[in-house]
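User: Before I run my own analysis I want an independent prediction to cross-check against. Here's the chain; please return only the C-alpha coordinates and, at the end, one sentence I can use as a sanity check.
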Amino acid sequence: MSDDARTEIRASARHTKRLTVALVLVAGYAAVQLVTALTTGSLSLLSDAGHMGTDSLGLGMALAAIVTATRASRKDHRTFGLYRLEIVAALANAVLLLVIGGYAIIEGVSRIADPVELEALPVLIVASGGLVINLITVWLLRSGAEDSINLEGAYLEVLADLIGSLGVILAAGIYLASDWAYADPIVAVGLGLWIVPRAFRLGRKALAIIVETAPSHVDLNSVQTGLESIDGVLDAHDIHVWTLTSDMDVATAHLVVAEDVDAHRILDEAGSHLRSEWGISHATIQVEPKSHSECLEETW
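Assistant: C-alpha coordinates:
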Protein backbone atom coordinates (compact mmCIF):
# COMPACT_ATOMS: atom_id res chain seq x y z
CA MET A 1 0.00 0.00 0.00
CA SER A 2 1.37 3.43 -0.95
CA ASP A 3 2.02 6.22 1.54
CA ASP A 4 -0.73 8.30 -0.11
CA ALA A 5 -3.22 5.46 0.37
CA ARG A 6 -2.26 5.07 4.04
CA THR A 7 -2.60 8.80 4.58
CA GLU A 8 -6.03 8.79 2.93
CA ILE A 9 -7.20 5.87 5.09
CA ARG A 10 -6.03 7.57 8.28
CA ALA A 11 -7.73 10.81 7.27
CA SER A 12 -10.97 8.98 6.47
CA ALA A 13 -10.91 7.19 9.83
CA ARG A 14 -10.36 10.50 11.64
CA HIS A 15 -13.17 12.21 9.73
CA THR A 16 -15.49 9.26 10.35
CA LYS A 17 -14.93 9.34 14.11
CA ARG A 18 -15.49 13.08 14.37
CA LEU A 19 -18.56 12.98 12.15
CA THR A 20 -20.08 10.20 14.26
CA VAL A 21 -19.66 12.16 17.49
CA ALA A 22 -21.02 15.31 15.85
CA LEU A 23 -24.03 13.43 14.47
CA VAL A 24 -24.98 12.01 17.86
CA LEU A 25 -24.69 15.40 19.56
CA VAL A 26 -26.59 17.37 16.92
CA ALA A 27 -29.38 14.83 16.32
CA GLY A 28 -30.02 14.42 20.02
CA TYR A 29 -30.25 18.12 20.72
CA ALA A 30 -32.34 18.83 17.62
CA ALA A 31 -35.10 16.75 19.22
CA VAL A 32 -34.83 18.82 22.41
CA GLN A 33 -35.08 22.05 20.45
CA LEU A 34 -38.07 20.84 18.42
CA VAL A 35 -40.09 19.89 21.48
CA THR A 36 -39.28 23.19 23.19
CA ALA A 37 -40.10 25.23 20.06
CA LEU A 38 -43.49 23.55 19.68
CA THR A 39 -44.40 24.09 23.33
CA THR A 40 -43.23 27.70 23.52
CA GLY A 41 -44.29 28.95 20.07
CA SER A 42 -40.83 30.29 19.16
CA LEU A 43 -40.33 30.55 15.39
CA SER A 44 -36.64 31.34 15.73
CA LEU A 45 -36.12 28.24 17.90
CA LEU A 46 -38.27 26.18 15.52
CA SER A 47 -36.10 27.40 12.64
CA ASP A 48 -33.00 26.55 14.62
CA ALA A 49 -34.42 23.11 15.45
CA GLY A 50 -35.20 22.53 11.79
CA HIS A 51 -31.73 23.69 10.85
CA MET A 52 -30.22 21.42 13.47
CA GLY A 53 -32.30 18.56 12.11
CA THR A 54 -31.01 19.41 8.66
CA ASP A 55 -27.52 19.39 10.13
CA SER A 56 -28.19 15.88 11.41
CA LEU A 57 -29.29 14.70 8.00
CA GLY A 58 -26.32 16.44 6.37
CA LEU A 59 -23.89 14.93 8.86
CA GLY A 60 -25.43 11.51 8.30
CA MET A 61 -25.07 11.83 4.53
CA ALA A 62 -21.51 13.09 4.89
CA LEU A 63 -20.67 10.15 7.14
CA ALA A 64 -22.31 7.66 4.78
CA ALA A 65 -20.51 9.16 1.79
CA ILE A 66 -17.10 8.89 3.44
CA VAL A 67 -17.66 5.33 4.66
CA THR A 68 -19.07 4.19 1.33
CA ALA A 69 -16.35 5.87 -0.73
CA THR A 70 -13.64 4.40 1.51
CA ARG A 71 -14.98 0.85 1.46
CA ALA A 72 -16.29 0.71 -2.11
CA SER A 73 -14.52 -1.57 -4.53
CA ARG A 74 -13.36 -0.14 -7.84
CA LYS A 75 -14.21 -3.37 -9.68
CA ASP A 76 -16.64 -3.79 -12.54
CA HIS A 77 -18.06 -0.49 -13.80
CA ARG A 78 -17.00 1.63 -10.80
CA THR A 79 -13.62 2.51 -12.25
CA PHE A 80 -13.26 5.55 -9.96
CA GLY A 81 -14.92 3.91 -6.96
CA LEU A 82 -17.67 5.90 -5.27
CA TYR A 83 -15.69 8.99 -4.35
CA ARG A 84 -18.15 11.25 -6.18
CA LEU A 85 -20.81 10.37 -3.55
CA GLU A 86 -19.08 12.92 -1.33
CA ILE A 87 -19.93 15.67 -3.80
CA VAL A 88 -23.52 14.49 -4.17
CA ALA A 89 -23.87 14.67 -0.38
CA ALA A 90 -22.48 18.21 -0.39
CA LEU A 91 -25.01 19.24 -3.06
CA ALA A 92 -27.85 17.68 -1.06
CA ASN A 93 -26.68 19.63 2.00
CA ALA A 94 -26.83 22.84 -0.02
CA VAL A 95 -30.40 22.10 -1.11
CA LEU A 96 -31.45 21.36 2.46
CA LEU A 97 -29.89 24.62 3.62
CA LEU A 98 -31.83 26.51 0.97
CA VAL A 99 -35.09 24.91 2.10
CA ILE A 100 -34.63 25.72 5.77
CA GLY A 101 -33.37 29.24 5.02
CA GLY A 102 -36.30 29.94 2.71
CA TYR A 103 -38.77 28.65 5.28
CA ALA A 104 -37.32 30.89 7.98
CA ILE A 105 -37.67 33.94 5.73
CA ILE A 106 -41.23 33.23 4.59
CA GLU A 107 -42.60 32.23 7.98
CA GLY A 108 -40.69 35.02 9.71
CA VAL A 109 -42.23 37.67 7.44
CA SER A 110 -45.65 36.19 8.20
CA ARG A 111 -44.99 36.38 11.95
CA ILE A 112 -43.84 39.99 11.69
CA ALA A 113 -47.25 40.83 10.23
CA ASP A 114 -48.97 38.82 12.98
CA PRO A 115 -46.68 38.35 16.03
CA VAL A 116 -47.47 35.70 18.63
CA GLU A 117 -46.86 35.32 22.37
CA LEU A 118 -43.60 33.64 23.33
CA GLU A 119 -42.47 31.65 26.37
CA ALA A 120 -39.02 33.12 26.32
CA LEU A 121 -37.26 31.57 29.33
CA PRO A 122 -37.34 27.93 28.09
CA VAL A 123 -36.32 29.19 24.66
CA LEU A 124 -33.33 31.02 26.16
CA ILE A 125 -32.21 27.96 28.14
CA VAL A 126 -32.54 25.52 25.24
CA ALA A 127 -30.91 27.92 22.76
CA SER A 128 -27.96 28.31 25.12
CA GLY A 129 -27.57 24.54 25.22
CA GLY A 130 -27.72 24.48 21.43
CA LEU A 131 -24.93 27.04 21.29
CA VAL A 132 -22.71 24.76 23.37
CA ILE A 133 -23.49 21.75 21.17
CA ASN A 134 -22.74 23.76 18.03
CA LEU A 135 -19.45 25.05 19.43
CA ILE A 136 -18.33 21.48 20.13
CA THR A 137 -19.43 20.33 16.68
CA VAL A 138 -17.70 23.23 14.89
CA TRP A 139 -14.50 22.32 16.73
CA LEU A 140 -14.88 18.68 15.66
CA LEU A 141 -15.39 19.50 11.98
CA ARG A 142 -13.20 22.54 11.44
CA SER A 143 -9.97 20.79 10.46
CA GLY A 144 -11.71 18.31 8.16
CA ALA A 145 -13.56 21.11 6.37
CA GLU A 146 -10.24 22.28 4.94
CA ASP A 147 -9.67 18.89 3.28
CA SER A 148 -13.12 17.84 2.08
CA ILE A 149 -15.99 19.67 0.36
CA ASN A 150 -18.29 17.12 1.95
CA LEU A 151 -17.11 18.03 5.44
CA GLU A 152 -17.09 21.67 4.41
CA GLY A 153 -20.82 21.39 3.72
CA ALA A 154 -21.47 19.83 7.11
CA TYR A 155 -19.21 22.40 8.78
CA LEU A 156 -21.01 25.32 7.13
CA GLU A 157 -24.37 23.96 8.23
CA VAL A 158 -23.25 23.68 11.84
CA LEU A 159 -21.56 27.09 11.70
CA ALA A 160 -24.78 28.61 10.39
CA ASP A 161 -26.66 26.88 13.20
CA LEU A 162 -24.21 28.31 15.73
CA ILE A 163 -25.05 31.79 14.45
CA GLY A 164 -28.69 30.74 14.64
CA SER A 165 -28.37 29.79 18.30
CA LEU A 166 -26.88 33.20 19.04
CA GLY A 167 -29.80 34.81 17.25
CA VAL A 168 -32.36 32.81 19.23
CA ILE A 169 -30.63 33.73 22.49
CA LEU A 170 -30.76 37.39 21.46
CA ALA A 171 -34.45 37.20 20.53
CA ALA A 172 -35.39 35.44 23.76
CA GLY A 173 -33.36 37.90 25.80
CA ILE A 174 -35.05 40.88 24.16
CA TYR A 175 -38.49 39.36 24.73
CA LEU A 176 -37.72 38.68 28.39
CA ALA A 177 -36.49 42.21 28.89
CA SER A 178 -39.18 44.12 26.99
CA ASP A 179 -41.97 41.79 25.77
CA TRP A 180 -41.18 42.99 22.22
CA ALA A 181 -42.90 40.30 20.12
CA TYR A 182 -41.15 41.21 16.87
CA ALA A 183 -37.73 40.07 18.05
CA ASP A 184 -38.37 36.37 17.39
CA PRO A 185 -39.61 36.62 13.76
CA ILE A 186 -37.04 39.30 12.87
CA VAL A 187 -34.24 37.04 14.06
CA ALA A 188 -35.78 34.15 12.10
CA VAL A 189 -35.76 36.23 8.89
CA GLY A 190 -32.19 37.33 9.58
CA LEU A 191 -31.11 33.72 9.99
CA GLY A 192 -32.71 32.81 6.68
CA LEU A 193 -30.96 35.68 4.90
CA TRP A 194 -27.66 34.58 6.43
CA ILE A 195 -28.09 30.93 5.42
CA VAL A 196 -29.31 31.24 1.82
CA PRO A 197 -26.22 32.81 0.14
CA ARG A 198 -23.92 30.31 1.84
CA ALA A 199 -26.07 27.48 0.59
CA PHE A 200 -25.88 28.87 -2.95
CA ARG A 201 -22.09 29.09 -2.72
CA LEU A 202 -21.75 25.50 -1.54
CA GLY A 203 -24.20 24.27 -4.18
CA ARG A 204 -22.39 26.12 -6.95
CA LYS A 205 -19.08 24.59 -5.84
CA ALA A 206 -20.54 21.08 -5.77
CA LEU A 207 -22.23 21.50 -9.16
CA ALA A 208 -18.97 22.69 -10.71
CA ILE A 209 -17.38 19.40 -9.67
CA ILE A 210 -20.33 17.29 -10.78
CA VAL A 211 -20.32 18.80 -14.29
CA GLU A 212 -16.53 18.30 -14.37
CA THR A 213 -15.37 21.85 -14.95
CA ALA A 214 -11.67 22.46 -14.51
CA PRO A 215 -10.71 23.34 -10.91
CA SER A 216 -10.66 27.08 -10.27
CA HIS A 217 -6.93 27.05 -9.48
CA VAL A 218 -6.01 25.37 -12.78
CA ASP A 219 -5.49 27.49 -15.91
CA LEU A 220 -5.74 25.17 -18.91
CA ASN A 221 -3.75 27.47 -21.20
CA SER A 222 -0.92 27.49 -18.69
CA VAL A 223 -1.14 23.70 -18.36
CA GLN A 224 -0.77 23.38 -22.14
CA THR A 225 2.12 25.86 -22.24
CA GLY A 226 3.89 24.04 -19.42
CA LEU A 227 3.58 20.64 -21.09
CA GLU A 228 4.77 22.02 -24.41
CA SER A 229 7.82 23.51 -22.69
CA ILE A 230 9.13 20.03 -21.90
CA ASP A 231 12.15 19.29 -24.10
CA GLY A 232 11.07 17.06 -26.96
CA VAL A 233 7.34 17.86 -26.79
CA LEU A 234 6.11 19.43 -30.02
CA ASP A 235 2.46 19.84 -29.15
CA ALA A 236 0.04 19.23 -26.28
CA HIS A 237 -3.66 18.78 -27.04
CA ASP A 238 -6.87 17.08 -25.88
CA ILE A 239 -6.16 18.30 -22.35
CA HIS A 240 -8.84 17.65 -19.75
CA VAL A 241 -8.66 18.49 -16.05
CA TRP A 242 -11.44 17.84 -13.56
CA THR A 243 -12.04 17.12 -9.88
CA LEU A 244 -13.14 13.66 -8.81
CA THR A 245 -13.75 14.62 -5.20
CA SER A 246 -12.13 16.85 -2.59
CA ASP A 247 -8.39 17.27 -3.19
CA MET A 248 -8.44 14.68 -6.00
CA ASP A 249 -7.84 16.43 -9.31
CA VAL A 250 -7.45 14.31 -12.43
CA ALA A 251 -6.00 15.10 -15.86
CA THR A 252 -5.58 13.56 -19.30
CA ALA A 253 -3.46 14.90 -22.18
CA HIS A 254 -1.98 13.92 -25.52
CA LEU A 255 1.64 14.90 -26.16
CA VAL A 256 3.14 14.88 -29.67
CA VAL A 257 6.90 14.27 -29.50
CA ALA A 258 9.82 14.07 -31.90
CA GLU A 259 10.65 10.65 -33.32
CA ASP A 260 13.88 10.13 -31.37
CA VAL A 261 12.58 11.29 -27.98
CA ASP A 262 12.59 8.93 -24.97
CA ALA A 263 8.89 8.49 -24.14
CA HIS A 264 9.71 7.37 -20.58
CA ARG A 265 11.42 10.68 -19.86
CA ILE A 266 8.50 12.61 -21.33
CA LEU A 267 6.02 10.74 -19.13
CA ASP A 268 8.13 11.33 -16.02
CA GLU A 269 8.60 15.03 -16.69
CA ALA A 270 4.96 15.60 -17.64
CA GLY A 271 3.74 13.85 -14.49
CA SER A 272 6.21 15.76 -12.34
CA HIS A 273 5.13 19.07 -13.91
CA LEU A 274 1.44 18.44 -13.26
CA ARG A 275 2.11 17.43 -9.65
CA SER A 276 4.45 20.28 -8.77
CA GLU A 277 2.72 23.11 -10.63
CA TRP A 278 -0.96 22.15 -10.32
CA GLY A 279 -1.21 19.54 -7.59
CA ILE A 280 -2.51 16.92 -10.02
CA SER A 281 -1.19 13.52 -8.89
CA HIS A 282 -3.45 11.35 -11.09
CA ALA A 283 -2.75 11.99 -14.77
CA THR A 284 -3.05 9.86 -17.89
CA ILE A 285 -0.62 10.99 -20.58
CA GLN A 286 -0.71 9.68 -24.15
CA VAL A 287 2.61 10.11 -25.94
CA GLU A 288 2.36 10.25 -29.73
CA PRO A 289 5.31 10.31 -32.12
CA LYS A 290 5.15 13.05 -34.73
CA SER A 291 4.53 10.49 -37.48
CA HIS A 292 1.48 9.06 -35.70
CA SER A 293 -1.69 9.94 -37.60
CA GLU A 294 -4.42 7.99 -35.80
CA CYS A 295 -5.15 10.56 -33.07
CA LEU A 296 -8.34 12.20 -34.24
CA GLU A 297 -9.10 15.82 -33.56
CA GLU A 298 -11.37 16.04 -30.51
CA THR A 299 -14.91 17.15 -31.31
CA TRP A 300 -16.16 17.80 -27.76
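Sanity check: The beta strands are 233-245, 248-257, 282-289.
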